[in-house]
Write a structure and sequence with these properties.
Length: 442
């Protein structure tokens, strides 16, 4: 009877393993089909890896590491991973808490004196981790963008951040914050007495054998890296000239295989819960998505938002639902309508465009589109889009702030002032609007 039970258990385990293998093959096959669809229309560039229980079941590269020189991407090509850096920073903070070197409830001024006592005592490490501390985004600071190359150390970032006004009272709201994670890097350095890069190397890269992950500064040589790529509104691919310094908030280089190694460490140690994390800029996009049943999808791309487009469709595959066919970017579609039919045409079609791209109807999409236009030198069209956004979402403070910024960039101080005043009417404590009004009044 005992032998029969053992044989029955062995048979059951074989069946489970066999079924899991079939399912993994099925997902790999469907992912392969999806990626061929993206590749055929030239709307993906990068590497895609799907793993089951940390064992790859699909891994392929597409497009070019350099689209102008036609250098193909390979599975060894290094990509910037944007805000996926934050996983490492968050994990270090949790390690230090486990080591008894800090507490999440500790006030920031216990470690750093970048703020006056009244402010530093209100901000906790937990608030910084959860982006509830009131800090903003150094990427939007003109002092940073005027010369990114000079920000080489965490302290360089702290010297910038300490002069940025808080966006809200610590603990009263939540807002995505790159500055907050740079400050966490400062806490890590203070507690350990070592640089953030040294901690990264000693705590993760060396012990886990992550030889293809690099905290590369501007000017340092690193072979086999992809080049960030702009897709113009007409669909052409051009190399981006924008350089980026890494920080505890983002900007390292890595590969899907190395990120899978880190994913395995997170699953094994539980030092932080993950789920789905994304990072990127207009010319980079990376995804690490922990899914049910032991699946992990990792995507690195030198196209902005491309990884997120793949993830959105694979999530539908994972649920057994149909997905929209890959197409041109939503912004390319909006630009075509804006050019042919003006803001009225964009207003008429916006809900359908968002629905076709599986997006919620909110202010964020036109706001992002407007900034793309502004950064592409199409300031008049950007203003048209921002104005439309204020018409559609008049209760959202940020849409008025963006319109004010566009008018300021155009040199129309009167309209910039009017819109910043509108921001202050809606939010009397908005320090950025107050700062901009003071600047414009001079």
């Amino acid at each position: 009877m005992k032998n029969f039970s053992v044989k029955l258990l062995a048979s059951a385990l074989f069946i489970i393993t066999f079924c899991n293998s079939i399912m993994a093959d099925e997902y790999a096959e469907k992912l392969d089909k999806l990626m061929r669809e993206f590749d055929e229309i030239g709307m993906f560039s990068g590497t895609v890896l799907l793993a089951k229980d940390n064992v790859p079941v699909f891994e392929k590269s597409y497009g070019y590491a350099d689209w102008e020189k036609r250098i193909p991407n390979t599975t060894e090509t290094l990509f910037r991973i944007g805000s996926l850096n934050k996983m490492f920073t968050h994990s270090m903070i949790n390690q230090l808490q486990n080591e008894g070197k800090l507490k999440l409830s500790d006030p920031l001024n216990k470690y750093l004196d970048i703020y006056p006592e009244e402010t530093g005592s209100k901000i906790t490490i937990q608030m910084l981790v959860e982006m509830k501390a009131g800090l903003g985004d150094y990427l939007n600071d003109p002092a940073f963008n005027n010369d990114r190359s000079k920000f080489k150390t965490v302290n360089d970032f702290l010297e910038l951040i300490k002069n940025e006004p808080l966006l809200f009272e610590p603990g009263t709201s939540e807002r995505y914050s790159n500055s907050g994670y740079a400050v966490l890097g400062g806490v890590i350095e203070k507690v350990t007495g070592k640089s953030y890069a040294e901690n990264l190397k000693e705590r993760f890269l060396d012990p886990l054998g992550m030889t293809n992950t690099h905290y590369k500064l501007i000017g340092e040589k690193l072979d086999n890296t992809a080049t960030g790529t702009m897709i113009t509104f007409s669909g052409n691919k051009i190399n981006s000239k924008m350089e980026e310094q890494p920080s505890p908030a983002g900007g390292m280089f890595s590969t899907p295989r190395d990120l899978l190694t880190f994913d395995s460490e997170l699953r094994k140690t539980g030092i932080m819960s993950l789920g789905i994390r994304a990072g990127g800029t207009q010319v980079w996009n990376a995804i690490l998505a922990q899914m049910k049943d032991g699946y992990t999808l990792i995507i690195t791309s030198n196209f902005g938002k491309a990884s997120e487009e793949v993830l959105a469709r694979f999530q539908k595959i994972f649920k057994g639902d149909p997905y929209p066919a890959p197409g041109i970017t939503m912004e390319m579609e909006m630009y075509k309508i804006l050019t042919e039919s003006g803001p009225a045409g964009l207003k008429k079609n916006l809900k359908q465009i968002l629905e076709n791209n599986d997006r919620e109807y909110n202010d964020m999409h036109l706001n992002f589109f407007g900034y793309q236009l502004m950064q592409s030198g199409k300031l008049e069209k950007a203003i048209e889009v921002f104005r439309l956004n204020t018409e559609l979402f008049p209760e959202v403070i940020n849409v008025w702030d963006s319109l004010a910024e566009a008018y300021m960039n155009k040199g129309n101080s009167q309209l910039a002032i009017e819109n910043y005043k509108k921001v202050l009417e809606m939010d009397p404590g908005n320090k950025n609007a107050a700062k901009m009004l003071e600047k414009l009044s001079k």
